[in-house]
Design goal:
By secondary structure, the protein is mainly β.
């Protein structure tokens, strides 16, 4: 998940995509997803949505650059954040969301403040400060929740924080001087992968930090600006770029190919020139959903090999966040 490129246009929609066909076996494009959309501005004014998350009570918690809204399946309405805890919310620009093992929801602000959401009272409570809260000139560049009930926050000053939900006092801080981490992912063997905007890929296990590969050198055709990363079931790395599409890396083979070389194609847009905002594997890693400046691309996989693609072109819409509710159903936030 990457928050490195902050959007500047007005949010148009939040799209809810539900798979109605998951048995495609030949490389092809088609309309295999059914979309329903909810116009944010109809209920809560103009805003840029940065994340949408399923709350434990079944509602959709939507965070935006200037506030928070709830979608209950029929209606979108704004949560009053002016005085939720007696002092008001310290931040209103949110760049990510987290969820602990007990189902608790958290919002991460651009400055690193984390707020916990109570779906019963629909109130927020200050929870903790992240790595960039003490310095207003720095900001959060990537957010990730790992399987071990921990979360990771990267900030623009080269810091990476790992912390357990259960114990805020136990944490690890990693520093990457002069580098900005724009993407975080968890490999199939449990290591954390961190991608910098210039293409260095680091592997983190415990206190050990190792540079795995320089993506900019391995992927010679890719532009030298990177945005996001995802990992599929075969442990292949899917790397997003600025105006250079998506590249897939097989570390064992030392091979990098762009997604069109693996069969992806669109008659409407040049995927090799697309800006990648986010790369999100499904919970079982059987598919990869990719948010582009031209729409939504979903690759269905078998043992890490793309079998088919679904591309949904969204005119004048950029997909900046994707969240899987469960297998085959995802929420797509656009602006």
């Amino acid at each position: 998940v990457s928050a490195s490129k902050m959007p500047h246009r007005i949010v148009k929609d939040i799209l809810f995509a539900a798979a109605i066909s998951t048995s495609l076996v030949e490389p092809s494009f088609g309309s295999s997803y059914r979309f329903t959309e909810s116009q944010v501005e109809k209920s809560v004014g103009y805003r840029t949505v940065t994340n949408a998350q399923l709350a434990s009570n079944g509602e959709i918690l939507i965070s935006a650059v200037d506030g928070v809204a709830i979608y209950n399946g029929n209606q979108l309405y704004e949560i009053d954040t002016s005085d939720q805890t007696g002092t008001g919310l310290p931040e209103s620009r949110f760049v990510g969301a987290l969820q602990d093992e007990s189902g608790g929801q958290y919002l991460v602000s651009r400055q690193g403040t984390i707020l916990r959401y109570d779906p019963q009272s629909r109130r927020f409570q200050y929870w903790e400060k992240g790595p960039s809260s003490s310095d207003r000139s720095t900001y959060i560049t990537a957010v990730m929740q790992s399987k071990a009930d921990t979360y990771w926050l990267a900030s623009s000053d080269g810091k990476l924080l790992r912390r357990d939900f259960s114990s805020l006092s136990e944490s690890n801080m990693y520093t990457f001087p002069g580098k900005v981490i724009v993407g975080l992912a968890e490999s199939t063997n449990g290591e954390t992968l961190a991608l910098t905007e210039t293409g260095e890929m680091f592997s983190i296990q415990g206190d050990s930090v190792e540079e795995l590969v320089d993506v900019s050198n391995l992927c010679e055709s890719a532009p030298k600006e990177f945005t996001s990363i995802g990992v599929d079931s075969s442990n292949a790395l899917w790397v997003g770029t600025k105006k250079g599409g998506v590249h897939i890396i097989n570390l064992q083979q030392g091979r990098c190919v762009d997604i069109e070389e693996l069969g992806a194609h669109s008659d409407e847009v040049d995927l090799r020139k697309s800006w990648t905002h986010t790369i999100q594997p499904s919970p079982d890693k059987s598919e990869i959903a990719i948010g582009l400046d031209s729409g939504l691309l979903v690759a269905k996989l078998s043992e890490g090999v793309p079998l088919s693609y679904v591309f949904q072109h969204l005119a004048s819409e950029e997909v900046i966040d994707i969240d899987y509710i469960y297998e085959g159903t995802l929420i797509v936030s656009t602006y």
